[in-house]
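Trying the structure run again after the queue cleared.
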Amino acid sequence: MVTWNPWHGCHKISEGCRHCYVYREDAAFQTELPTSNVRRTGSFDLPMRRKRDKSRKFPSGTEFGLCFTSDLLIEEADCWRDEIWDIIRRRDDCSFVFFTKRIQRLNKCLPPDWGKGYSNVAIGCTAENQAMADSRLPVFLDLPIRHRLIIVAPMIERIDLTPYLDSTLIEAVSAGGESGKYARPLDFDWVKDLKEQCVSSHIPFTFHQTGSYLRKDGRIYHIPREHQHSQAKKAGLDYGK
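Done. Tokens:
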């Protein structure tokens, strides 16, 4: 997957944002502007770029992960978003995925020709706890989207997704812990329970990241950043892939 960040910066809106990695990385690199200042980046037109021979830099079939250092639906980007939809429309030979904590804004942010959704766009709605699942997911299921994903990250408590796991609407669920020095622990039993909910609903499930602290069998393990994805994979909880 190619990361495409047409803008950078975000502001915290829920409990899952408490230890946001974007804020942490900006602090580490001592960026001039605060993370809450949303600004366009030099990668704004990334999917449209060409090589010297005029061929596409990113060929047909490329998958783009969109706005990983911001949120596609953030208010400050309202004046730029139409240009992004136009790029996605023109690169209909590629696929695009973005995750959002602002799913309630989607209807306001859609292009006029969206219809039932662009076939090359997948949208992941994040839900870090039960309150956010119950707030965001009913909205998410009612919107015109072709490809829906539920992203439980950072998972900060046990979550019951069963009211929302309609296999005709949800294509996959992914779960992960929180990273960083001050990360809240992820309980392995929460992940196993979530996986079983997905199995019962015949929806693919991925445990994509342990986070920095994993609680298992009464012990808390510190997982270095470089091993968080591989250790999650080794847990053997992925289903339906």
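The longest helix spans residues 188-201. Worth checking whether this holds up in the mutant runs.
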